């Protein structure tokens, strides 16, 4: 399964919630590896956890055995039981955090975002949830890149679809994968 899937995002969110700790540093992943051992008597390397959280680069797919162990660390029998719990207990809620719906924007409207460690961008709406990067500081995004996005949520990662950078083929891209957007403002 893709490590960017909503189900895996929820699994990570629940683990961090149970531990009351965000996975942001190498020591956090060592700590989580120890917790997994204490709860399941199964080993999972801090490196595997770093890849899953996007702290380091790695495979886009996550092994089912990894998902089973993490699900057991949360108290489920395996990954399938975790998924069944999501289906039966509902995991959908209205967005409570400050947010901007791209559908509410007109062509020419602008959005400012920032994320850690010191990334800043201004996007201009092209219409139909398409945007162009107007300004970019300390980011892999560059002025003139275009992408699609439907919802910008403060404190959550921003998922860009069809990011076009120069002559490269379009890709999916995550902004603020670890801590989400730190600032979100509709510019006037």
In words, what does this structure look like?
The chain is of the alpha+beta class. It folds into two domains: 6-89, no CATH class; 99-187, no CATH class. The protein has helices spanning 6-19, 26-40, 46-53, 64-74, 79-89, and strands at 99-101, 110-115, 119-127, 130-137, 146-148, 151-153, 158-164, 171-175, 183-187. A seven-stranded antiparallel β-sheet has the order 8-7-5-4-3-2-9, with no helix packed on it. A two-stranded antiparallel sheet has the order 1-6. Helix 1 packs parallel to helix 4 (64-74) and helix 4 (64-74) packs across helix 5 (79-89). The chain is elongated. The model has no long low-confidence stretch (mean pLDDT 89).
Q: Main attributes?
A:
alpha+beta, two-stranded antiparallel sheet, single chain, 7-stranded antiparallel beta sheet, 188 residues
């Amino acid at each position: 399964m893709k490590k960017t899937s909503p189900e895996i995002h929820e699994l990570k969110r629940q683990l961090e919630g149970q531990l009351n700790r965000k996975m942001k540093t190498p020591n956090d992943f060592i700590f989580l590896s120890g917790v997994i051992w204490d709860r399941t008597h199964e080993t999972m390397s801090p490196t595997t956890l770093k890849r899953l959280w996007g702290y380091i680069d790695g495979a886009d797919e996550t092994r089912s055995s990894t998902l089973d162990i993490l699900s057991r660390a949360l108290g489920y029998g395996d990954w399938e039981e975790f998924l069944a719990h999501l289906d039966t207990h509902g995991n959908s809620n209205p967005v409570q955090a400050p947010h901007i719906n791209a559908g509410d924007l007109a062509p020419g409207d602008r959005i400012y975002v920032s994320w850690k460690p010191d990334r800043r961008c201004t996007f201009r709406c092209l219409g139909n949830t398409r945007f162009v990067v107007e300004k970019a500081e300390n980011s892999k995004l560059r002025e003139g890149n275009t992408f699609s996005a439907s919802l910008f949520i403060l404190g959550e990662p921003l998922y860009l679809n069809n990011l076009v950078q120069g002559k490269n083929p379009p890709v999916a891209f995550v902004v603020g994968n670890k801590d989400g957007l730190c600032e979100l403002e509709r510019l006037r």
